[in-house]
């Protein structure tokens, strides 16, 4: 999943010296932490595989939210404006959130419980989550009756074909690449050669790749089995685009939507108003609701601002909830410690996992003992602290997130869960054995407030083990450009990654496949291990998702424990709050935030 | 003059306070050693039982206890007492260096301009005018990163001394003009006096005249200006570190402690923290300004304030 959504957490320090009035004393830190158990259980449930639903499960309308009633306006404070509204261009967090209300795809995630923890992939526009008879090479979808765009025109297989074919057009360059690569059967960006101009110059994908025999049927044909297709099609990037209403580049500002809400007005960087889409038929939609009359979204609301407004809970803020803004790190202890806030607070996992990359292109880092010493010595507690504590970050043992199938909570090779401050004594011993005491480590860190805080404490921990740590700040705006350069100066640096769907097949191949090392690519540690490469090929061909998940976890353990090109830091979590008059506030583990589809005004 | 100063009670008390701060700064390593801690230890990792997972000290008032006299800093849990000591040390060190540098430059250029007159006076005065027109704060903020980056090699951390040198350089660059101007004026007036003429007639070289005749007569403005400038430099340095372009973590610094105190984490959870850098700095600045007033009064009792 796109990175920009999470990483521009630019924290603006508030120069509020005037607050220092007569509050002579301050109470201590929060003594919370009791919900750790609950969190663990959440993860347990999540890791139970998300099933592919059948036709019955894909029938609308969606089950009523208990106590919900129609009407009212909900205001939504948001930090970042939406750069893209064309579904094929959407790959970042905040845009995926609003897309849940606007765009529909062939499949989607249906919440099967009212707490946002159990899900099923069902047919959204299609009658089921897809049928295959040959282990994932051919997938057949049949469209439902009565599905329409906002202009009242029916959604047909021609629209689906158009939506797929335009993914190959040059101006679509932000979305996920999976389906295109599978259809073209090539890695990287070579897929564009299959249909260089998209469908706009009269050329189309041949029936051997994508077949639409009638107005209701779509058949995908791959050369290799791709059992994950229903997951992939549930991504916003593969939602339907109207063939008639396609305005190419301009579609990005004014799309023809198919979901329960349409855009009434959008002023980029300022605000957006969503109103009900009257051409959306709830009987066709097993996933979404249409309780609220209007959503008014205001942009440029920093986390501190939205948190303070929602805590204060006055005026229109009582019917406000942010979809993406979490409680800022500074206010977190306070919000969690306030019993009045409890019913208005939701907590859950985000799909991101953080890791410290060890740059294997540097000679001193190629010594495994040195890497093991780093893994033992590195304190991860500073990272957790910098982002607000255990409610915002959970110490990670491995690289498979609790939200991904195959997660093993007991896997913790470097003892970080028990001792997050690291084990400098053990590390020192390893360094002495290797004769590498005093190894210089250039630590690239993002120059945000958090980066500053955790890098200093991490450096202190590593120095205790006998490393010579040189911290180097990197501006937040160019951070990923800098660290993804093949020839960079940094020995260690932090990045995070999220699975695109709950399978490690969207984590391990992009991050650790030695054949995808390239300028700007995501194999940040530049690891090229023959066993990882061959295992990726082998596991990608396993058709049974449960078996594949187990194998991915095994490979992940090999990477963390035996290759040691990375040290996992934390599983990202988030705490969100809502106004007192907002109902149906649920943290959805698949969305990684408040589920906007279930909201109503009390 | 010394007697006049001693009679001024405020001045004497201020002088003691100021001396105390300098002593604290000077002896920071000794005090920290006796106290058994240093400002670089990440207590949130060393003693995790004292903190919640967000790094907020569990005990009220930022974890003030017999062990940690001023409590612990929310976040990485540095010891506030030693951090303050070292912070005072850093800030005063930089400010004293800046004051010395500016005073020397001021004397050199001001006296030269005033004594030589003519073309030298014209050019030095234009340079002073030009530099005075610079918006000082903006210049500091903009030039600090540039000056720092001049020294840094790509694989190494920016060493602390580079930041210190850069801070001294930028503040010195825009700090000496006022003193220079005053000294130019005074020298200009002195130059026309009879005793200087007498010295000239008796064949004294210009260097000797400046050293023996002029400099002893400009000690008053130098001292008075110096005592006004130093607290200004302390606040300016603190301001730069507060804005994040001065001294950065983990090097302790007075101004940076204010920056820390203004973060949401500290503001919401440990307001007590603010008092240590805050009160100490207020006391220091007020005392130093009162001292400056007293010094001026002692030297020059006739002018009203």
Automatic annotation (TrEMBL), chain A:
GO biological process: peptide transport
Domain of life, source organism: Bacteria
Start and end residues of each Solute-binding protein family domain: 120-514
Annotated InterPro entries: Peptide/Ni-bd, SBP_5, SBP_5_dom
GO cellular component: ATP-binding cassette (ABC) transporter complex; periplasmic space
CDD domains: PBP2_clavulanate_OppA2 (cd08506)
Pfam families, per database record: SBP_bac_5 (PF00496)
One MF annotation (Gene Ontology) recorded for this entry: peptide transmembrane transporter activity
Protein name (record): ABC transporter
Species the sequence originates in: Streptomyces regalis
């Amino acid at each position: 999943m796109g990175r920009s959504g999470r990483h521009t957490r630019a924290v603006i320090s508030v120069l509020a010296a005037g607050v220092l009035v007569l509050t002579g004393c301050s109470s201590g830190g929060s003594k919370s932490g009791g919900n750790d158990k609950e969190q663990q259980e959440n993860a347990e449930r999540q890791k139970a595989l998300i099933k592919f639903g059948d036709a019955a499960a894909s029938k609308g309308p969606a089950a009523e939210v208990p106590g919900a009633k129609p009407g009212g306006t909900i205001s939504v404070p948001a930090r970042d404006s939406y750069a893209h509204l064309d579904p094929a261009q959407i790959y970042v967090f905040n845009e995926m959130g609003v897309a849940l209300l606007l765009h529909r795809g062939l499949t989607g995630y249906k919440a099967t419980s009212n707490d946002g923890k159990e899900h099923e992939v069902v047919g959204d526009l299609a009658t089921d989550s897809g049928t295959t008879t040959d282990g994932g090479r051919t997938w057949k979808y049949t469209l439902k009756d009565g599905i329409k765009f906002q202009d009242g025109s029916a959604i047909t297989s021609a629209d689906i074909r158009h939506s797929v074919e335009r993914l190959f057009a040059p101006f679509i360059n932000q979305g996920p690449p999976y389906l295109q690569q599978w259809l073209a059967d090539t890695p990287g960006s070579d897929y564009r050669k299959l249909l260089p101009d998209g469908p706009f110059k009269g050329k189309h994908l041949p029936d051997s790749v994508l077949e639409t025999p009638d107005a209701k049927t779509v058949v995908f044909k791959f050369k290799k089995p791709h059992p994950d297709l229903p997951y992939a099609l549930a991504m916003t990037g593969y939602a339907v685009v109207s063939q008639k209403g396609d305005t190419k580049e301009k579609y990005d500002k004014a799309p023809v939507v198919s979901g329960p809400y349409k855009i009434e007005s959008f002023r980029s960087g300022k605000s957006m108003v969503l109103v009900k889409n009257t051409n959306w038929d709830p009987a066709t939609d097993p996933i979404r609701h249409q309780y609220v009359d209007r959503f008014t979204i205001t942009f440029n609301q920093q986390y501190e601002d939205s948190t303070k407004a929602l805590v204060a809970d006055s005026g229109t803020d009582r019917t406000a909830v942010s979809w993406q803004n979490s409680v800022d790190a500074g206010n977190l202890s306070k919000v969690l410690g306030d019993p009045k806030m409890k019913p208005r607070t939701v907590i859950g996992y985000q799909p991101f996992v953080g890791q410290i990359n060890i740059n294997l292109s540097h000679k001193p880092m190629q010594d495994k003992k040195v890497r093991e010493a780093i893994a033992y010595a590195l304190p991860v507690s500073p990272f957790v602290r910098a982002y607000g504590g255990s409610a915002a970050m959970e110490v990670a043992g491995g690289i498979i997130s609790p939200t991904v199938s195959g997660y093993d909570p007991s896997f913790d090779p470097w003892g970080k869960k028990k001792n997050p401050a690291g084990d400098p004594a053990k590390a020192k011993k390893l360094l002495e054995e290797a004769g590498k005491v005093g190894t210089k480590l250039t630590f690239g860190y993002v120059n945000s407030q958090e980066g500053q805080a955790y890098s200093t404490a991490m450096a202190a921990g590593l120095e205790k083990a006998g490393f010579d740590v040189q911290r180097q700040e990197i501006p937040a705006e160019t951070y990923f450009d800098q660290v993804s350069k093949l020839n960079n100066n940094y020995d260690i640096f932090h990045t995070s990654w999220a699975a695109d769907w709950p399978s490690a097949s969207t984590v391990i191949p992009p991050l650790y496949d030695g054949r995808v090392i390239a300028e700007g690519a995501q194999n940040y540690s530049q690891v090229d291990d023959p066993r990882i490469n061959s295992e990726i090929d082998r596991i990608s061909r396993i058709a049974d998702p449960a078996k594949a998940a187990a194998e991915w976890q095994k490979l992940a353990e090999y990477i963390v424990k035996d290759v040691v090109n990375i040290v996992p830091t934390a599983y990202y979590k988030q705490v969100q709050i809502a106004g007192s008059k907002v109902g149906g506030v649920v943290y959805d583990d698949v969305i990684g935030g408040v589920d906007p589809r279930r909201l109503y005004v009390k | 003059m010394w007697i006049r100063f001693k009679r001024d009670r405020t001045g004497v008390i201020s002088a003691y306070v100021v001396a105390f701060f300098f002593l604290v700064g000077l002896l920071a390593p000794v005090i920290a050693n006796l106290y058994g801690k240093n400002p670089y230890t990440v207590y949130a990792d060393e003693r995790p039982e004292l903190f919640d997972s967000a790094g907020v000290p569990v005990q009220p008032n930022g974890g003030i206890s017999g062990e940690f006299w001023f409590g612990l800093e929310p976040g990485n849990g540095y010891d506030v007492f030693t951090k303050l000591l070292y912070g005072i040390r850093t800030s005063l060190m930089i400010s004293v260096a800046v004051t010395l540098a500016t005073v020397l430059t001021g004397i050199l250029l001001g006296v030269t301009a005033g004594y030589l007159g003519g073309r030298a006076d014209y050019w030095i005065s234009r340079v002073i005018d030009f530099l005075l027109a610079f918006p000082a704060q903006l210049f500091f903020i903009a030039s600090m990163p540039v000056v720092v980056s001049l020294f840094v090699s790509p694989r190494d951390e920016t060493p602390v001394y580079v930041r210190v040198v850069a801070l001294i350089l930028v503040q010195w660059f825009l700090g000496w003009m006022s003193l220079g101007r005053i000294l130019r004026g005074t020298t200009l007036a002195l130059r026309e006096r009879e005793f200087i003429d007498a010295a000239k007639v008796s064949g004294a070289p210009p260097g000797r005249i400046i050293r023996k005749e002029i400099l002893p007569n400009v000690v008053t403005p130098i001292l008075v200006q110096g005592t006004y400038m130093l607290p200004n430099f302390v606040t300016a340095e603190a301001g730069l570190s507060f804005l994040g372009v001065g001294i950065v973590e983990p090097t302790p610094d007075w101004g940076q402690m204010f920056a820390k105190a203004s973060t949401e984490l500290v503001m919401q959870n440990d307001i007590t923290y603010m008092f240590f850098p805050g009160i100490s700095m207020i006391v220091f600045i007020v005392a130093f300004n009162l001292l400056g007033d007293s010094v001026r009064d002692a030297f020059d009792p006739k002018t009203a304030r």
